[in-house]
Description:
The complex is a heterodimer of chains A (495) and B (363). Chain A is α+β, with helices and mostly antiparallel strands and 495 residues long. Chain A has helices at residues 7-22, 34-37, 61-74, 126-133, 152-158, 165-168, 202-206, 240-252, 265-275, 295-311, 323-334, 336-341, 359-373, 399-418, 437-440, 443-456, 471-480; strands at residues 30-31, 54-56, 78-81, 98-101, 108-112, 117-120, 138-139, 175-181, 187-191, 215-222, 224-225, 229-237, 259-264, 285-293, 315-319, 346-349, 377-381, 390-394. Chain A has 4 domains: 7-101, Uridine Diphospho-n-acetylenolpyruvylglucosamine Reductase, domain 2, CATH 3.30.43; 108-225, Uridine Diphospho-n-acetylenolpyruvylglucosamine Reductase, domain 3; 229-339, Alpha-Beta Plaits; 345-492, Alpha-Beta Plaits. Chain A has a 7-stranded antiparallel β-sheet with strand order 15-12-14-13-17-18-16, with helices on both faces. Chain A has a 5-stranded antiparallel β-sheet with strand order 5-6-10-8-9. A 4-stranded mixed β-sheet of chain A has the order 1-2-4-3, with helices on one face. The relative contact order of chain A is 0.11. Chain B is of the alpha+beta class and 363 residues long. Chain B has helices at 2-21, 71-80, 98-104, 111-114, 117-120, 149-153, 186-197, 221-231, 238-249, 257-262, 303-312, 335-348, and strands at residues 25-28, 43-46, 53-57, 62-66, 83-84, 121-127, 133-137, 162-169, 171-172, 176-183, 203-209, 212-219, 234-236, 266-270, 283-289, 294-299, 316-320. In chain B, strands 13-10-12-11-15-16-14-17 form an 8-stranded antiparallel β-sheet. Chain B has a 5-stranded antiparallel β-sheet with strand order 3-4-8-6-7. In chain B, strand 3 (53-57) and strand 4 form a beta hairpin. The relative contact order of chain B is 0.14. At the A-B interface, strand 9, helix 7, helix 8, helix 10 and helix 16 of A face strand 7, helix 6, strand 9, helix 7 and helix 8 of B. The structure holds flavin-adenine dinucleotide (FAD). Flavin-adenine dinucleotide is lined by residues 43-44, 79-87, 90-91, 102, 122, 144-146, 150-151, 153-155, 157-158, 160-162, 210-211, 215-216, 337, 426-427, 463 of chain A.
Amino acid sequence: MSASKSPNLREHRLGRLYPLLLEQLPKDAIITATEELHAYECDAFTTMRQLPLLTVLPDSIEQVQHVMRCCHTLDIPVVARGAGTGLTAGSMPVENGVLLGMSKFDQIHEIDPHNRTALIGPGVRNQAVTDAAAPYNLYFAPDPSSQLACSVGGNVAENAGGVHCLKYGLTVHNILELEIITIEGERITLGSAALDAAGYDLTAIMTGSEGLLGIVVAIRVKLLPKPASARVLLAAFATIEEAGTAIADIIGAGLIPAGLEMIDQTGIRAIEELMHAGYPVDAAAVIICELDGSEAEVEDELASVISILKRLNASDIQVSTNAEESRRIWAARKAAFPALARLAPDNYIMDGTIPRRALAEVWTRINELAEEYDLPVVNVFHAGDGNMHPSILFDSSDEDQHQRAFELGTRILELCVQVGGTISGEHGIGLEKINQMCLQFSSHELSQFHALKAAFDERNLLNPGKQIPTLARCAEFNAMHVHHGEMPFPHLERF
Amino acid sequence: MNAQFDLQKEFAEYVRQAYARQQQLHIQGGNSKTFYGRRVSGETLSLRDYSGIINYEPSELVITARAGTPLHIIEATLSEHGQMLGFEPPAYGPTATLGGIIACGLSGPRRPYSGAARDFVLGITLINGKGELLRFGGQVMKNVAGYDVSRLMCGAQGTLGILLDITLKVVPIPAYEETRVLEADETQMQTLLSDLGRRPLPLSATVLDENLLYIRLSGARAGVDAAARVIGGDLLAKPQGDRYWQQIREQEHKFFNRARETDTNLWRLSLAPATKAIPDQLISNQLIEWSGALRWVYSHNDDEALRQWTQQQNGHAIRLNFADASDRTFHPLAPALHALSQRIKNSFDPAGILNPGRLYADL
Ligand SMILES: Cc1cc2nc3c(=O)[nH]c(=O)nc-3n(C[C@H](O)[C@H](O)[C@H](O)COP(=O)(O)OP(=O)(O)OC[C@H]3O[C@@H](n4cnc5c(N)ncnc54)[C@H](O)[C@@H]3O)c2cc1C
């Protein structure tokens, strides 16, 4: 159903909802003008768009409760939005549904240096937490490349990671307590100020639930002490295999670097062109490895890493000697997304995660697939934890290319599942990967997800249609997605 | 392998029938943690024969094992490869199984510094209350496909599913460990640990035991030495140090004798680390771990007052009795949270047959 086919439903819902909302929200917190609504029609996955019925921008928990009660009463879907930097159409509105913007929840309520926690609103930007904690020598560990813009509420909803999560964990490892509003408008506290809580571990289930279970209105995050010393090392390799082996060997040697990233040649060149960070443009791959700890510790580990790298014929090994040099190397890595954006009109970024041992094999296979589909694929990714980010470059105005890009994406994710991995390491499912969920989960598993969702949201009003595909959708997808007359992975046990 | 796979199917079939008959099941591993919750009645379903390591790749830092695998086997295998479980779980006896540890969500002295059991769980294969064999998570470090059901199983004590195969992230054994002992009262401990906590020091355990503060440091020798210079105090020799932390981990230190020998209730209070001292009138004695975040106490038998105080501090209190399961082990949940938890339980176990009443009367 597109908006044009259901003008009546739209008018009908607006007519009933708007006056109800006005009972507790000021007029300027409700946006209904189409030209203004365009700002909310997509997240960073811009090839999918949908206008909402209206956008509300509440600034208090009570207002969120009111919005939820109104929508629950009138059976109107609600989609939460943080900063809209998601890569999976997770905060894309649903047709004739409300978009709930959480941007006004941008207060840091408390930094508690003794407990090393911060209590914040979900609209606070990721980087702002680290900035506010800096005077206490503390920081918030999850550092997605989008950290200047993305909200911590969005990080919780996606269980976001970053270049340092190899050592310091994902969002789920760095939050203690969440306050949520249910679709009925009820306020519930999950977790506690302590290190564990009574009952089920519901902070774990909320983290990564993509706005399908409740609205996060307050977050208590953990803060970590800044390392005394951190050095960043950059090394070039003539082959992808050697680079992949280097990653596995570093981890296998019992070292846990703070970050361990890998970039292929196209990625190196694109980044270098934009950032001029001194990346070696002739290498087949570079790896970036950050070691942190006490000064002596870092020196020891640097020596171990360098000897592993040399054994694997690394060249051009650069080691940062001060914070500014480290910052420059990381800034360039974190600019990968805009750098790639200059190479093609569209960039379809995958997020499959695989066991490290399969890195070189999967990478080679991806390059073969890229050739088969005749589209360039660039790899800039979190190698240390096996989180591949192959970016498929294409032009969405060319229907054939667009189609090929999506098929290639599915093949890559299928490959990740085949080697024992997952279709998403940190970006989430949203609407973008909803079909590929059918590759990873059986119908019983999907049904269990739906039952769990119903425990929070019986009428399926929170971000409906996202993250967990219906069984009917999977039946259709699986029927279409048959290779060489076979079902996907006939050899795998489907329960 | 195949026999074990058949066993999975057999378990599933068994639960399907139990579901049809509405037969309540009492899920058991090594039967070492009966005291850690409420008494469960029902047909006993033992996981003990469902045992063995399925896959262990040291270079991936990942192990997958069956729920009935004895904890000591897992730990011995890991240590052969210089690795360990990062959350240092208490076993509470030689029969402890991996499934029991994860189901109870138990973590030991290392927890505040390197993470809880749930932080290391990567994937779980389980059977829900309808007898469906389900797999969530996987073997990889990062996985956000679908809800994080594997972590939800940690601490759910089998009330949401019967755990079969468990995949955990493991960590390298620290190159070097050292224990420092300092004189300190509670206030001094808090001031010191709050200060140390804002510095990147390799703390891996702390205990305030009467007026002595024990601090364990773990990591590269150079880092530990540097930290030891900052902290000062006396060195506790390695064998004594290891024995000390083992006793703390298993609650076999002399502080726990009263609970072990006299049927006295032992309280485990989980609090924000800098929470002020527990009022004297509520407790007779305490031992403080986790930089202040975990306080073992004996109460003056006013359970309500102790629970209320803990709740006011935004923490929770567990009441344990090593001799037996007890009805009011866990901290009561706020009504809305309790209702939500029931709906979640119902979504996994609609007939309420999996360890019914283990956590709360109706959960
Ligand atoms: C250039 C670039 C680089 C990126 N790099 C990384 C990276 O390194 N690692 C990584 O993990 N991700 C990365 N991302 C993806 C994205 O930034 C993260 O997923 C981020 O967590 C999204 O936050 P947001 O505030 O923008 O959320 P949005 O995009 O607004 O929303 C994301 C999801 O969260 C839900 N949501 C938002 N707020 C709430 C709330 N208060 N309550 C309930 N649900 C809510 C939405 O409904 C939606 O499902 C990158 C994105 C870009 C554009």
